[in-house]
Design brief:
CATH architecture of the largest domain: Orthogonal Bundle
Largest sheet: none
Structural class: mainly alpha
Number of strands: 0
Order of helices and strands: HHHHHHHHHHHH
Strand content: under 5%
Number of helices: 12
Number of domains: 2
Bound molecules: iron/sulfur cluster
Helix content: 55-70%
Distance between the termini: 22 Å
Length: 224
């Protein structure tokens, strides 16, 4: 089966099971960007706590930019990798201020998706997932982020080759998935990856995608 055909069937089956999603984040884009940086390699609970603490201690992003990285590190300790994330946050805020003259990303609303992605990706510390999460949820642009659940499910299904890097996989999925389906598929892959196609002990028997899945076919070939 061609990848395009498989993707179409996967989209339909997951929509039938988990629905369509139109979620939009209407908050400050810099908040969304910092939240995404804090969410790297940790749980939602830990990163939310770190973000809430950061907002409690610092009244504005300008004050975070002026603060010492070691003080920021203490504030976001609950989010994991606090030293790396503190330096990353300061660098990203500093670059936005340096390039745009002030701490705002509102100009991205009117910027074509390719240019908006290029702007964000040119800042060290903003990877393809972080850029795509911000653009799709805050600015409603047609770009699909690939998080760990998306990547695992897409690889097991055989849509993304097993050894492909996450950066290349991100490009491939964005070519294959139609624009208007990107948000729902991203969210449905997360739901499916958290509940059925889990990293350990995936629940193949109750999976709606098993007839399309390479992993299932290889490890559980049909009995003759
Ligand atoms: S059949 Fe198994 S491996 Fe394939 S998508 Fe479903 S749960 Fe994941």
């Amino acid at each position: 089966m061609k990848k395009e055909e498989k993707i179409t069937k996967v989209i339909q089956l997951l929509k039938k099971k988990y629905g369509e999603h139109n979620y939009r984040d209407r908050g400050n884009p810099i908040d969304a960007l910092v939240e995404t940086i804090l969410s790297q390699n940790t749980t939602d609970k830990n990163s939310s706590r770190a973000f809430a603490n950061l907002k409690k201690i610092y009244p504005s992003w300008e004050s975070v930019l002026k603060a010492d990285a070691r003080s920021i590190k203490k504030t976001i300790r609950s989010g994991g990798l606090p030293g790396i994330k503190a330096r990353r946050i300061k660098h990203v805020l500093g670059e936005i201020k340096r390039r745009r003259g002030r701490l705002t990303l509102d100009f991205l609303r009117e910027t074509p998706v390719r240019d908006a992605t290029a702007f964000l990706r040119s800042i060290k510390g903003i990877g393809p997932k972080t850029a795509a999460v911000l653009l799709i949820f805050r600015f409603n642009k047609l770009v699909m982020p690939l998080d760990t659940h998306n990547l695992r499910v897409a690889k097991r299904l055989g849509i993304v080759p097993q050894k492909m890097s996450s950066e290349k996989a991100h490009e491939l999925m964005n070519q294959l998935v139609p624009g208007k389906e990107k948000k729902s598929l991203h969210i449905n892959f997360i739901i499916h990856g958290r509940t059925i196609c889990t990293a350990r002990n995936p629940k193949h028997e109750i999976c709606v995608l098993k007839n399309l899945c390479d992993y299932y076919r290889i490890y559980y070939p049909p009995k003759r």
